[in-house]
Amino acid sequence: MKRIRLIVAYDGTDYCGWQIQDNAVTIEGELHHALCELLKEEIQIIGASRTDSGVHAMGNVAVFDTETKIPPEKIAIALNHYLPEDIRVQYSEEVSTDFHPRFCDSKKTYEYTILATAIAVPVWRRYSYHVYYELNLTKMREAAACFMGTHDFSAFCSAGSQVRSKVRTIEDIAVQEEPLFYGNGGKIIKLRVSGNGFLYNMVRIIAGTLIEVGMGKRTVEQVQDALENGKRQLAGPTAPPQGLMLLEIKY
Asked: Is the pTM of this model over 0.70?
């Protein structure tokens, strides 16, 4: 028996998230079906990040155990023949049998994309959140700096989270601007954040909060107050899922 690690990229638009569900099409469900077809075994998949409905990934991680004779590095290519076009395994390799993608120390990087234009651009609708207003990037960056380091992120976690501790460490956070060279002008704004772990909807709530700061609806001081007091109602809204991308998980 050997354990195989997969690096998985997907467009999450048409899926009900990562985790297998009854009567719903999910990323894990499609991978499970494809692996069973390819390997002629009953496979159990363990994923690193259970991304929500509509959320995308460039580098989610999953592992499974198998008796297959297929060389580990060849599994990715073979598996892609059984997967829909909006899911692709980028890489496959053998890892230690005790490697667990959720419990091993890791650094996750997410990116949230905001389309800041007067009129929406249709080709971006699946991969960004459209905001009609001009955003103050200086204030957004000032507010983003509040999240650096180790904090209790209770105010930035959706109800339903069952984790015991809501203390997390953000190692890097940046608000970047890219010009839009076509259409009606405007800009692409990307919030990129890396840390040792994230709570349920944490990145989307941070994004929603920073958008309100950029719009002038919320101050930097209010962001700091939410972080210190830990009350969900003090933070901003949960930004829509289509703007969120899991870029990378490093172990």
From this structure: yes
Instruction: In whole angstroms, give the CA distance from residue 234 to residue 176.
Output: 25
Q: Where are the alpha helices (DSSP H) in 50-185?
A: 72-80, 137-144
Residue with token string 């259970």: 50
Active site residues: 52
Question: CA-CA distance, 42 to 95, in Å (whole number)?
Answer: 19
pLDDT digits (tens, 9 = 90+) for 127-186: 999 999 889 999 999 999 999 999 999 999 998 777 889 999 999 999 999 888 665 678
Query: Which residue stretches of the chain are H helix?
Result: 27-39, 72-80, 137-144, 202-215, 220-229
Q: What is the C-alpha to C-alpha distance for residues 225 and 155, in angstroms, rounded to an integer?
A: 10
Pairing of strands 167-179, 187-195: antiparallel
d(CA 138, CA 41): 54
Question: How many helices (DSSP H) and strands (DSSP E) are in the chain?
Answer: 5, 10
Name residues whose C-beta falls within 8 Å of residue 142's C-beta, 6 or more positions apart in sequence. 220
